[in-house]
Amino acid sequence: MGSLCDYLDKGASLGRDAPCLVEGGRTLTYGDVVDLSHRVAGGLARDGVAPGAKVGVLSANSAVAFACVFGIARRGAVWCPINPRNEAAENQALLELFDCEALLFHPAYAEMVEAFDVRVKVRLDELDGWLGDPGGAAGLVDDLAMLVGTGGTTGLPKGVMLTSRNLETMTALTLMGYPFEGRPSYLALAPLTHAAGVLCFPVMTRGGRIVVMPKPDVGAFIALIERERITHTFLPPTLIYMLLGHEALDATDLSSLQCFWYGAAPMSTSRLEEALTRIGPVMAQLFGQTEAPMMVSMLPPAEHFEADGSVAVGRLASAGRPAPLVTVAIMDPESGAVLAAGERGEIVVRSSLVMAGYYKNPEATAAASQHGWHHTGDIGYLDEDGYLFIVDRLKDMIITGGFNVYSAEVEQALMAHPAVRDCAVVGLPDDKWGERVTAVIEPGADVSPDELVTFVKARIGSVKAPKQIELWPELPRSKVGKVLKADIRAQLLE
């Protein structure tokens, strides 16, 4: 696929009248979206937005906003998803970083956009009056398809340059590695500015239907799976935990589901086992990052089970096996030596999945690609069967009493307790231990810190068990729902 609009055109070739984007009572067919994309390209051309220019889209989940992405691609411009959950200053900084010439935005963000210094601004509710004549189509410049901001949980975000080749590799791996029977129906509750958006591309190659949820609502999500006969969807673990706690789940017909992806954060193995029983044998893990989108490794539904049909309990803590077009190694972060199976080090990647680099940031690009590999910043190991286990972020490892303790392992032990809704483990300075293992718990029921310490000691021993446990009503999270350990550490130090 040479351009993002090729995914749309492939779907349209399987039937222009088939539903493409569904939101509420409105359905846009493949033909509707193709025609709209030509007119968006025409509007951009008329306003002097050249091929290769950067165009932002600022909107919560919206069928029309997502349709405009294909118009940007048809013009040969670069799609820059702008997260509506960011503060205005963050988004202004992103637009400046990306050199955005144009911004298409939902009217809900009109006040925010007023202050933005962007040459062309188009409100989505005034789109009809702005659209141009078809004829603005042009080829990609330098193969750059997307500019995406990194999470920004540590300082200023960087601009990740994703090419059409990166996204084609991701799409090919998705279609290669997970079940797709017939025309898929994909439910997008998670933000289309992130993982949920790029997962639309493989769905479109099969002429599939994308059901867009404008705002997160777990009850509505459950109802839509049954009503729309959803086959594919994606949620981060936090929302899956909410799903498992919803009273409507067990009474809902989920038999249409083929593939329920989870990723973006580690998932509790005990909750995953519960999901395999209550949601069905359809859970499917993916591991990637903005710089290597989605499919570094994969654990398709079948691999959650042994040959005899029992749950493969030991495998549930893994991130699956490296994808077929991806080479993964474990590297000593100091020497650059590649380590043997079972040894822990930094997860490094080689693949056409890996980004072209960070936009206008050669230093960061060089740092991320030392020794000829892309450095993920995650610590992990490969077992003898080739399964990848992620044990921590490099910066989150705790050294206590001379021992390396990986926060993810302690978090898994805590999450096995039924009273723990979510948790985060960090290291704090300690005169005796160097760092003490400290856990912050978001409880789902009454529980005491002493009870949790005893529970964890029985599972992983006293060295790794928290020396300090705090109970907080809610963990601080980023705009995309990731737990902010730096904020937790800072609050605890105060």
UniProtKB/TrEMBL annotation:
Residues 15-359 form the AMP-dependent synthetase/ligase domain. PROSITE patterns: AMP_BINDING. It comes from the Bacteria. Keywords: Ligase. InterPro entries: AMP-bd_C, AMP-bd_C_sf, AMP-binding_CS, AMP-dep_synth/lig_dom, ANL_N_sf, ATP-dep_AMP-bd_enzyme. The keyword Signal does not apply. SUPFAM superfamilies: Acetyl-CoA synthetase-like. Pfam families: AMP-binding, AMP-binding_C. Residues 409-482 form the AMP-binding enzyme C-terminal domain. GO terms for molecular function: ligase activity, forming carbon-sulfur bonds. This is Acyl-CoA synthetase (AMP-forming)/AMP-acid ligase II. It comes from Solirubrobacter pauli.
